[in-house]
Design brief:
The complex is a heterodimer of chains A (325) and B (549). Chain A folds into 2 domains: 24-130 and 259-324, D-Maltodextrin-Binding Protein, domain 2 (3-Layer(aba) Sandwich); 133-231, D-Maltodextrin-Binding Protein, domain 2. In chain A, 41% of the residues lie in helices and 18% in strands. Chain A is an alpha/beta fold and 325 residues long. The longest helix of chain A is centred in the last third of the chain and has 19 residues, at 306-324. In chain A, α2 packs across α9 and α4 (103-112) packs parallel to α11. The longest helix of chain B is centred in the N-terminal third of the chain and has 34 residues, at 106-139. Chain B is globular and about 65 Å long. Classes of the chains: A alpha/beta (325), B mainly alpha (549). Chains A and B meet through α1, α3, β7 and α7 of A and α17 and α19 of B.
Amino acid sequence: MRRASRGVPVLLLVAAGVLVGCGDDADGGGDAADYPSDDIRLLVPYAAGGPTDLTTRTVGSCLESELDTTVVVENLPGGSGALATTELVGAEPDGHTLSLVTAGTMVLTPLANEVGYTVEDITPIGVMAEVPSVLAVGDNSPYASAEDLVQAVEAEPGSVDVGVPGASTPQGIELQRWADEHGIEVTVVPFDGNAEMTTALLGGNVDAVLINASQDVTANIDAGQFVPLIASSEERLDWLPDVPTFTELGFDGLTLSGSTFGLAGPAGLPDDVVTTLEDTLQSCLEQDEVREGIGEVYVPEEFAGADDLAEILDETQQVYEPILG
Amino acid sequence: MGIADGLGEGFSVALDPTNILYVFIGVLIGTVIGVLPGLGPTATIALLLPLTYELEPVTSVILLAGIYYGSMYGGTITSVLLQLPGEAASVVTTFDGYQMAKQGRAGPALGIAAVGSFIGGTLAVVGLILLAPPLADLAVEFGAQEYVALTAFGILLVTYLGTKHPVKALCMAALGLLLATIGQDLTTGTGRFTFDQVELFDGLDFVAVAMGLFGVGEILYNLEKTEKAEQIKSRIKNIWPSRKDFKDSSGAIARGSVLGFFLGVLPGGGGVISSLASYGMEKRRAKDPSRFGKGAIEGVAGPETANNASSTSAFVPLLTLGIPPNVVLALIYGALLINGVQVGPQLIDTNPEIFWGVIASMFIGNLMLLALNIPLVGIFVQLLRVRGGILAAFALLITMAGVFSVNNDIFDMWVVLAFGVIGWLMKKTGFEPGPLVLAFVLGAILETNFRRAMITSDGQFDTFVTRPLSGTIFALMALVIVYSTVMGIRRQRRGRPPALYSDQLDAAAPHETAPGSEAEGTAGVGATGDRADGGGSPGATGGSTRAEP
């Protein structure tokens, strides 16, 4: 009954929005020492209902109780994340406006479009969740293993159709790099999100998919309808111990197709605010309730803080810039 | 999941007090807007769309579906009593219904329409249950080529079926396709027509476009007209039809159910077409066709049954393929997307509560309508006294607040206003928004699947005709084009407009009141209500269908 909680009449919502807007102007730029001194706006650059939304809401409600302030989670989908991110980078760097960030919203979108911000315009706080990608085939596929598939592609480049969740997605770029850097040329077929790809794979209209292993996909893997052949992570996944990684198969560097859901504020966030948020996030991610909410397998085993998130985003930027820039 | 299990789950969803309340609200709103000539089901659903964001997905579809088939009942009332079709699909009912009312038989006319609608609606639900799950199983196999064929077929039929001006409809469909290209190219990620505006990266928001064209456009258009409150003085007696009435109509109701069901499934089909087709069929089958137009009860029973059946069966392509067959269903598709539900062949598996819950609610809704309509006709008629100006002010306020709430984006409010003005101008000039909106929705599906088919076939066009299913559909399309061209030429030689059914529509005109007979194209697209011309001439309203002198 998640939706019921949003059952505030529309007019009230609008009125409340106006009031909140006034409030921000009145006491913007609060003192870092008594942070948080006001409500926290937590933006999600994607629509309600997906894994990003779920993760942010779970972390948001934990921040709310840990920091003892109201956390308002706000979905601002659109512009491949640019709408929410523009809002974030334009906000006062006082820790009262935060957002979920991904390599997609922070690196891909600014490289592919004129959006007026770059990865330099935010202050990373920490990693909330990491969703790996898997290259999977259907249960009646002729390719029983990664080697089978690679051999087929090498024998006849372009003969294997692989679905990805969108044109400029980490998965799409990863397959392009597979061709450019390792000579493995599959035909990249862009879909719009996981559901379309799932239907296409089940219906036999693509040979394989490179897909975010979110909960809908793990359900299909458990049911045996999807057979994962390769994982995008650096090391094998705990929950898929028999599935090799791209690196293991000799394709070095293909570790960027997973999604990292980071937490960030605008550039220039005071150090003590970052530390407060980093520590709170760390303790949140140790709570069972939060881990179950996000999905146990997606919470990084070892907490990745501000520096780690910055490193992930920078690495992605360096790899993608020559391809897209 | 078997049918029994499915229905079990469906009723457990539909009988939830919240959902019962919403199906009741839906059919009540539907009846009311069916009575009011100003607002049709399309405009109403467009206006209420953002509010469904606050509801569970299944509840929102239950509500919107209730409005849709409820309006099919409501539209009958004013057609019979005042010769004012409350919504486009009821135009046909004015032919014989009003004549029956003049002969003092308004009661049985309304009664048989309610009974026929109930039977047609219920049978169509049964058809939906039997047809949809196997079709969805089949549809999982559909590849990009099949989707290209189906969407192209849909756009073709929309511009051809039930439009008065196929050329104008074609123009609007083309415009819809063009508008659909705004935003990021889904295959390459390049921005198109975005002018580096972040708001345009994802293209125009469908909800905002539809609300503007149908909602605001309709409101503006209605405000232009002088209003005059209507009053019904005659009392309606003996609403329950006699045994002879039932005997006369039983065949028409049975045929109307089947006809309506199949025309509803067809892209571009729906309410208007099915009621017209049923009327034509009954007239052809009658021993004495001259009775038609003079108060033949079959002429009321058949079309009213058919339009209700079609409003239910229209859910088949949406729930199994993810392709909305007409504008109302396109809006319901929008409601599901707003709520984050993926509409496609897997819907029945992944969201069984939506599929079966909506079906179960249709049984309940049809029963409610039967109960509502027969005793309460008199009260609904009084609604005609509500002044349009008051309605319009409220509707506009709800629209603007509503569209903002969907994406929290002020830009969408401008889109609504801009398309509101465009919609108003289109109505004034006789262009229909229906084909535009449907082409806009289908255009995105068509383009991505076309590109996908080109990628997987290495650019070979024959991929569309060598696959058996898409080949068959393309062959059908060729047939429709040839047939319509030949018929169009023949009609023109006889000095008639080249559109399908326009002669039947013209039949309404000799009474010289024929309001709202603009025969809005796709499936009950907004009630066109030339409000309260009662007794006057339909005047110079664009697209009026008066017979040649």
